[in-house]
Predict the 3D structure of the following.
Amino acid sequence: MARLGIDIGGTFTDFALIRPDGTTAVHKRLTTPTDPARAVLEGVAAIIQENDLSIDDITEIVHGTTLVTNALIERRGARVGMLVTDGFRDTFDIGQEQRYDLYDLRLQYADPLVPRALRVEIGERTWHDGSILTPLNPAEVEQKVADLVEQQGVEAIAICYLHSYANPDHENKSREIVAKRFPNLFACTSSDVFPYAREFERWTTTCANAYSQPLVDAYLKRLEEGLEELGFHGQLVIISSSGGLTTPETARRFPVRLLESGPAAGVLMSARIGRDLGLDNLLSFDLGGTTAKGALVKKGLPYKTYEFEAARTYKHKSGSGLQLRIPVIDMCEIGSGGGSIVSIDSLNRLRVGPRSASSEPGPACYGRGGEDATLTDANLTLGYLDQKGFLGGRMTLDAGAAEAAIGRYAKPLNLDLVRAAWGAHDVANEDISRAFRVHATERGFDYRRAVMTASGGGGPLHAARIARKLMVPKVIFPAGAGVMSAFGMLVGAMAFETVRSNRVKVDDLNATRFDAAMAPVETAAMAYLLENDLPRSQITLDRRLDMRYCGQGYDIEIRLPNGVSSADLVAQLRSLFETAYREVFETLLDLPLEIVSWKVEAKGPDPDFPIIGGEVSARAASTESLKGHRKAYFALAGGMIDCPVYDRYMLRAGDVVTGPCLVEENESTVLLDVGDTASIHPSGHLMAEIGQA
Amino acid sequence: MSASQSFDAIDLSIMWDRLISITDEGAAALVRTSFSTLVREGFDLSVLIFDLRGRIIAQSAKCIPVFIGTASTTLRHMLDKFPQEALDSGDVVVSNDPVFGTGHMYDIAVMRPIYLKGVLVGYAMSISHLPDIGGMGFSASATEIYHEGLRLPVVKLVKAGEVNQDFMELIRLNVRVPDQVIGDIYANISCTSVVTRQVADFMKTYNCTSLEPLANAILQQSEEALRQALLAWPDGQHTGEVQVEAGEETRRLVCTVKKQGDCLSIDFTGTEGCVRFGSNVPICYTRSMALYAAKCLTTPTIPNNEGSSSLIEVSAPVGCILNAVPPAPSAGRHAIGHFVVPLVFDTVSKILPDHVAADSGLIDFLTLQGHLPDGSGMSVTYCAAGGFGALQGLDGRQTTPGSSNMGTTPVEVFEALSGLRVEEKVLRPNSGGDGEFRGGAGQTVSMRNMTGRDVTVHAMSNRTRFPAKGLFGGGNGAPRAHLIDGKETSGQGSFRLPPNSVLTLKQAGGGGYGSPKARPADAVRQDIEDGFLSVEHARDIYGYDGAA
């Protein structure tokens, strides 16, 4: 059996294959934005052929896509109608009533996904304790939905009532009414999408879900049919934002949970490497075509969060996007990718991104009509990329076009080309370092004692220098780093996560009450796996509670140990909370505790993934692995030098290379600076010790 | 590092950012552990790092304008009482004195000296809005400062690591929600401990023995940016004024802005006197608001520190309502203090017409007190935003706070906290000032008392009698109004909301910019669709001839 991971990114679609014998192969091709399934299907055919396999050998395809992310950014989603509690039609316009930048008088905010004319009020009301204040009138719902569909032509309905997290009855009834009258219409409820108090965020998430439903459905249908045409009979699974695998059916129901699924998979791969190598603290760094991303992994588990902002609309600023609530791997993102455009700001400072040349037209050196200088153009000019050997020789880069583009901004500043290109490279490294520093610090994570993993097409080129700025002592360059997200798809387990708001005072709890609150959340989380024929015995539950001192507004997440009776758990809650609280805030208070939300992640077994271990003795890299030398810029070595270039495929376990040097594989190039030393681990990873400035 | 050490651009930006991220991290810890809704939802807090000379080097990015430029005065008073030699590692000094704090006693300043290898190198401070401070509760109804609660002297709350329990007990006995107030004080204590530890680590990492060289470089660069911005303005001197409600009375605020070379002075001479009502504004608050307005217009992207206000002078005659001194009460100083920003903008509009926003509808501010149906005590602060003022080329945004930046509490959270049912929260049509660029719309919020008992409403509102003015031919925003069961009440003072009665808050619109005749018909049509304009109003004012 062979398994295939496919990750659609903004610029490239990546493929990672695990062959029946456990060895791996990769493939990369340009994304086809107007019909993303095309690159996927072509790539599947290509990678099978390249590896002398038949489609019958592929038992499973794991897929991640930026389809939803792009639909939100480009506003290409469905025409959605919204049913909302009487008196709250304007919730999206009124917003959170806060400026995200105090000093900028010209702030702009993301437009609501559902225009005001398509939001209709329903006379119903649930109270915060779940009791019904105003009953639902089914005739009113039916009439208003009919108007939306027949007069306004909506393609999907988002049902959003107040306090539905406490009692979903009205939302469920409304959905039944919609389903009965319009069986083929997409409809979702806010209590199903994310049953969490705070109407603005929950409803925004629900509308984003409805907005992407028709699109994702059509895409998956095209993909399923295309794969069937290729003769694929295995299982297609989709990776979600939190890194869990879901079926196409679940993905159709919760498409909003597909946001950022590709990057999530990259972090899973990092986590897997960390577990295999016994590393406690990892900083996962990815640099792709449009952005750089960082995530933290502690003891093999990626940090997670429920807050995600999509599609920022004003100067890439936090607060200007759509405020969503979904389970997601906690990543910081910065607009510095290979396609990020280099510019000069009003104070004559060099800036990289957040504007991107993406895949169309792409960097100037791609020769597809791009005129703006990008980070990739700078890296080519600095000699870090091989103009003939890009993507293993399948793509040539136009060095003249890159230099011309850089010249356009270098000239007004009186900079020579190399200095201007170096400025862009270094500014990107600086920006990324700063973003990581803040992200890690805010989460109490000591990056200086962590190990970095580098991935994405551009990650290995920048990682060693960013690590040096952060004083991170070690960097791992995994084999296939350029397509690590695609590999990450293959290490994930089937999983589904549910969160429910339910405020309960700990003093009022006993085992029975605890079970009564927890059981429905567990059932909901497991339902998706059971429906997909995973036996109960193979499902493990990760149960977590958000707890706080009564009256505080923010919560601390507590992970409940497995295999402990409910009575014992209830007895341990306070000490579990205090341990976690003290770790972050140092002090404790003598106050009652409450549980605010209940979270359960149901997970299937981890799939097999070949990782080779063992000890080898170090030796200098063989002469066969040295491809030759190329002029490349190393400030620490005094400028343009004759830089040794190694062929990663010729390096064997135990081989040692020292910086300054470049190590090339088809999808990415590792850069080691003066003072860095790296050796090939038996698993194939290149492990670097970073010199300190 | 020597005192004259210089930093290259990259080193400076990295170290500068690092200090700011330490304060941001302290602020994040404070927000997460705090009980006060205003701290959590409205970022009514600030975290700062000072050098040994008491100059602000870094301030947390997420804060509200009131905290700009007040903290160095607070620190100076603390050091007057406890000079360097009287401080010890493990000491924590606190004060809530409105005179040299932030203008009301709800804000507690907590200061911890920073030591590196036993040597004092600087100071960390956090300031946050406490859930209660005794007295009448959070309202503007006091006639003397003594009604407004517990005024703490500058005191060592923690002495070499030992908490002064007698003092804690004194606070505990004088406030309504002692556990929450004490909890918030501890949140500040641990926040400053995080900051001092991180600053010491930072100095070790970069091999610094003093923060001064870095402070010099940071302040110099900030001041230079401000200087360049001011030099770009034309010189000039202009005076503006505004009428404001002050309890049952009205007061005139007068502002003179003088810009000459690289100096800016903002003076409030001519402003009328204090009232026997808690909306008097101590000078520290007036100064913060004026500095904030100036910052929006000069260096909005430069982080806050002592250098970013060094070329700006703010003054007001002692005893006027913008320089109130005890015993004038000031708990609700924001109700009038928030007018300083639009007043400065309006005055500067005569120098820089294209840079300023028209008046904003400002923020409504209420405290609700009573009991939940289960008998437990209830005290909730509620904010609702009016519309933002229009600018050249940009409509004012609806329901967006002006002057300060308190966010709203989600309806689902507010209802559970207060026992009041929000029956509607909708845009208020025609409330934004008309104009080529339309003022932001306000909103209408109605809430029914479902608690079964009386609820006391303490209102600290403004713009009920004096609307947000338009600029350059733009119309005024609609004024704010409070109604109980449909009958209008005053926006300032304390009221009874009987069981099942409905409190309606109509939020003020922002001022418009330019003549409404110049607004394109398409934009007017969109305004109707978006709920900002009624068809009749569009016809009457904009000459709209489209269908309803």
